[in-house]
Amino acid sequence: MTTVPVKDKIEYTVSLISDFAKKNSLSTTQAFNYLDRFNAISLINQHYNITHTLPFSDVLEDLSLYCKNHGGNL
Question: Has residue 44 been placed in a domain?
Fold first, then answer.
């Protein structure tokens, strides 16, 4: 398996956080804190090789569901 450049993971994660914030009417800081609290940031990092191939809208929906299943309420 090839190593993914850290820059690519960071840019992807920042984009997801930004879009998650817009979708849920949050600031980017609030979105990051929410996603981090329910371990979604770790999930994104761990499964980057899969998630970056999926449509953003699907990933955002999955993140919302993942957080909800772990106690989130957005």
Answer: yes
